[in-house]
Amino acid sequence: MTETFEPVIIGFTCNWCSYRAADMAGTARMKYPPNIRLIRLMCSGRLDPTFVLKAFASGADAVLITGCHPGDCHYVEQNYKALRRFQLLKRVLTQMGIEPQRLKLVWASAAEGAKLAEAITEHTEEIRALGPLNWPTGPNGFEQNKPEEMVVQEVTA
Amino acid sequence: MERITIDPITRLEGHGKIEIFLDPEGNVANTYFQIPELRGFESFCVGRPVEEVPILTNRICGVCPEAHHMAGAKAADAVYHVDPPSTAKKLRELLYSAFFVTDHTTHFYALAGPDFIMGPDAPVAERNILGVIHKVGLEIGGKVIQCRKYGHTVVEMIGGRKVHPCTSIPGGLTKGITEEQRQEIEKMGRWAIEFAQFSLKLFNDIVLGNQAYVDLILGDIYTHHTYYIGTVDENNKVNFYDGKVSVVDPEGKRLGKYGPSEYTDWIAEHVEPWTYLKFPYLKKVGWKGFVDGKDSGVYMATPLSRLNASDGMATPLAQAEYEKFYSTLGGKPVHQRLTIHWARLVELLYAAERWVELASDPEITSDNFRTIPTEKPTEGVGIVEAPRGTLTHHYWTDERGITTKVNLIVGTTNNYAPISMSIKKAAQSLITKGTVVTEGLLNRVEMAFRAYDPCFGCATHSLPGQMPLEVTIRDHEGKTVDVLKQYC
Amino acid sequence: MSTNGKPKFAMYWAASCGGCEIAVLNIHEKILDVDANFDVVFWPVAMDTKYKDVEAMPDASILLTLFNGAIRNDENAHMAHLLRQKSKILVAFGSCANEGCMPALANLSSAKDIITTAYHTLSTDNPQGIEPQPDWNAPEGEIHIPRLLPVVKTLDQVVPVDYYMPGCPPESPQIAAVIDLVVQVLQGKAELPPAGSVIGAGNSTVCDECLRTRNVKLIKKFERIQNTKLDPILCILEQGVLCSGPATRSGCNALCPVAGSPCIGCYGPAEGVLDYGARLMTAVASVIDSNDPDEIDSILDGIPDPVGMFYRFNMAGSLLRASKGAWDGK
């Protein structure tokens, strides 16, 4: 009996806008799939491509990056940094054979809980249809990275 | 069948191993010289911007990255249909000449020298660079170190780094040299000429002055009649950096000369399933197997080949040595493989003279060392002489200059068939029914391929500069009968 | 050559180019210090010790082994295990052993692809499509060559490593300094750094050693080096030519930028970095002078080969390590 594939999605949300949007969705009881595991950053500009790569290497099927709308960043311009990194990362991931849909960027303000919930739901179904990534260094894979590497380390910004 | 396995062979590109099979009488039935390595440069250079490929291909070999860098630089120039300014070409050739001096020196002293200075049957513990130094004096060891130092200093000055140069780009170089540097380079070059002459004299006294060695060199064990190739300039004189590749047959008759874009009309590569390295051969003659002769496409590309395939050396002192070489050995072409060591020293002298020639050229300090390409990139071939043989780089790109395909025929690869044949012939001559396999015998098998200076001819290892050999003799049931080891 | 109770030293090359060996020799007269203080027991490029002799050595009997070269085939992996067993201190020497170096770019293709490409090139005459076989029945008997592993690995992906010495190759002054340190340790005058440390390199990035002048970088267009004449005083990245200096560990004295060529990243990641390419991506993304997605895309088109640029030396040591196609063996 085959089980439905449940994607594992890591979501990096920024503290000021998108995390609050997710909060709002929660308090308003707007449903979105539990496949996404949210990690809060102070700003989307804090997103180091290392986080995305580590997510995929550790077994994630997709990564969602969320942040404040362009022009609304709490720290003024840093979401543009996230945008540039995202666009560059996508090119690298494509060359590595990871489908571009697996990395998504969504701008959401604190009031856009519904929008965020919808985006997450859509993304989850898209990835479900795409199938698991099963990167060999992940928990189901045949190549484990050294256990010590998986410990949280301070990564300079 | 009884089998003798030699694993690993050392001092060649990466690793190698030899399997010797004995027939029931105890004679050598066949040998297989296997190369167990493949890294896949022809795959992973694809997709890279073409200006990076001369830097990527450096890593094919850290002993002769200069050769790959230059062949790659010329191929990248050809891809962009750009002609670098004369200063750039001269600077590249100057770097290249200094590199040749360094490389030939370390092979001769650390690898070849011990066989002749100590003797092929000398005790294992002495048959290395340390033994050489004890016999001829610490001063010589110091000179060899000095020569390497000078050579690499020039490489760094022009190439940016001592190992894996980085300054050649399509259209020229990223830097030139100052007058101060030029003077230092010239001074070092003049020292190198003296050192080359000293080395030739050493060879003359110790090797040619010893009848036993002369017999060894002229003997049939290490002799093969094959085709020879080498790059020559427009006067048919040996040139390491640029020119056309001259091909001569076993009788010395020139079959023709080919330019970079014509190499596929001349050279093809044969594949065997028991080794990762391919066997280049002359297309016009065809692959007939591992055999000598005019009807076999097997060819050699070594210092001896370059001398055989040319009409002379372009500098006066080296030309005199070239003439002496052939008059001593009875005319052109010469087929005895051990004479490669001598030919190498003649080239050493030429490289040193060329070093000084280029360093004295007033154009060498010009700041016009780059041309910006204007044409669309397509495809290009670059050929240089690596110390071990003719090196060919062929790159194809898309219209953005991103590499779409790469074909490489590397120096030592040219010689894979002749080396295999030399090993087999030496083994067959030395191991016959009833032979007691001794250390000296093993060394004489080694000498068969050491003459070719397979890439990775190591530099000044002031340690037992000897190839490790272990010979395992098994009976027909595979049981080990005897194990002979050769190490310090 | 006497053994005299001197500590044992070994240097081995796996899938390497020999540049590390040459870099060691380029310490020139200092090689005599190695000879004076150590008994060199295994160095295939120079000496006759065979694999069987290493196997016969007691465990941990070699004090110091410098292991260079990547792990490309099963023979390399076997030697890594063997030398780990026989050595007290195992150093991942050079970029190949540390992070895969350029041969790890092969991790963008499958091992199968690599073989197919090599034996069907333009000049290869192979109508029967022969490809090398790890085991082959010669008429006289069966002979073997190593099997390619599916992907290139770093040394520490195969065995635990005590120290890491980066560089392609490690620069000779750094090697000389490390030898000096080891000799001092042997004489009881100094202590070894903590296990797992990077030795023979700096604690900062190449930019700190580079002599060029740096200002705020605002790139509207990336240039290919052959299309532009670089100002010799100004930062290379600032002039729009991609330079890996910002993410690369120091220790080489910024030789390449000094010579007019951009840093290519051969000294590997800076301290504390998990994925070299990620850090270089961050640095490059930061200097792009645009906030508009379409304009950003157009500027990024000036980086025609992102993976090759960001993971030039570090593919095997990165987090993803190889492309999906390479992992899947397609």
Total count of helical runs of at least 4 residues of chain B = 15
* CATH C-level category of chain A: Alpha Beta
Tell me the radius of gyration of chain A: 16 Å
Determine the N-to-C terminus distance of chain A: 46 Å
Q: How many strand units of chain A?
A: 4
Structure description:
The complex is a heterotrimer of chains A (157), B (488) and C (330). Chain A is α/β, with parallel strands linked by helices. Chain A has four helices and four strands. Chain A has a four-stranded parallel sheet, with helices on both faces. In chain A, helix 1 crosses helix 4 (113-130). Chain B is an alpha+beta fold and 488 residues long. A five-stranded antiparallel sheet of chain B has the order 3-2-1-17-18, with helices on one face. In chain B, strand 4 (168-169) and strand 5 (172-173) form a beta hairpin. Chain B starts with a strand and ends with a strand. Chain C has 13 helices and ten strands. Chain C is globular and about 65 Å long. The mean pLDDT of chain C is 92. Chains A and C meet through helix 2 and helix 3 of A and helix 10, helix 11, helix 12 and helix 13 of C. Strand 10 (267-270) of chain B pairs parallel with strand 6 of chain C, so a sheet runs across the interface.
Name a few traits of the molecule.
B: 488 residues, alpha+beta, Cytochrome-c3 Hydrogenase, chain B, 5-stranded antiparallel beta sheet, 4-stranded mixed beta sheet, 15 helices, C: 330 residues, alpha/beta, Rossmann fold, 3 domains, 13 helices, 10 strands, 30% helix
